[in-house]
Design goal:
Pfam families: TPMT. With 196 residues, the chain is an alpha/beta fold. The chain contains seven helices and seven strands; from the N terminus they run H-H-E-H-E-H-E-E-E-H-E-H-E-H. It has one domain: Vaccinia Virus protein VP39 (Rossmann fold, 3-Layer(aba) Sandwich), CATH 3.40.50.150.
Length: 196
């Protein structure tokens, strides 16, 4: 019964788009996430010029922060509004390019070329389209995907990771019987079994 309320909960793409449209984005952190700053060394592991993936990126300010350090950032997000706000809020020039492999998808790329944000479902991506990554910053992604899609999500993530990549995962702890999510509660045991 631990996850009884949440197991079958489905948040549609429309609901996520509506959150952005109505500004109901309590999950967005204006100042960036303190845990990324704290564990940045773990993510980078002394390496420079990494390719870093932001699943369900929204308009995360850390994308700009890491790009400014010389890394290549790739994100994916269903809300075009979120991606446009990201570039606008950082006064970053960008251009929009089609993604031939994914019907209806767009890629927003900074003119400097070091930030590429895909506007599509994360499940449309594959390593043949976006390549592989040295690091993943998963803040609010695993906990936002519908519980029934978790295995699919993690399997995809594993295919996008280079051999020595670091995966930083932020989850939330609370009583899942008191909150229907998102963010969803993912117990540590489940995280271990998902990622093996």
């Amino acid at each position: 019964a631990e996850l009884g309320l949440q197991k079958d909960r489905v948040v549609t793409q429309e609901e996520w788009l509506r959150k952005w449209e109505t500004g109901n984005i309590g999950f967005h952190k204006e100042q960036g996430h303190p845990l990324l700053q704290k564990y940045l060394d773990v993510l980078l592991n002394g390496r420079s010029g990494l390719r870093i993936f932001f699943p369900l990126c929204g308009k995360a300010v850390e994308m700009k922060w890491l790009a400014d350090m010389g890394h290549n950032v790739v994100g994916v997000e269903v809300s075009e509004q979120a991606l446009k706000e990201f570039f606008a809020e950082h006064s970053l020039p960008y251009h929009e390019v089609p993604v031939p492999e994914i019907s209806g998808a767009k890629k927003f790329q900074s003119t400097s070329g070091n930030i590429s944000l895909y506007c599509c479902s994360i499940y449309d991506l594959s390593s043949s389209i976006v390549g592989k990554f040295d690091g993943v910053w998963d803040r609010g992604a695993l906990v936002a995907v519908n519980p029934r899609d978790r295995q699919r999500y993690v399997s995809l993530m594993i295919t996008l990771m280079e051999k020595n990549s670091s995966y930083l995962l932020v989850t939330v702890c609370y009583d899942p019987n008191k909150h229907k999510g998102p963010p969803f509660y993912v117990p540590e045991s489940e995280i271990k079994s998902l990622f093996g």
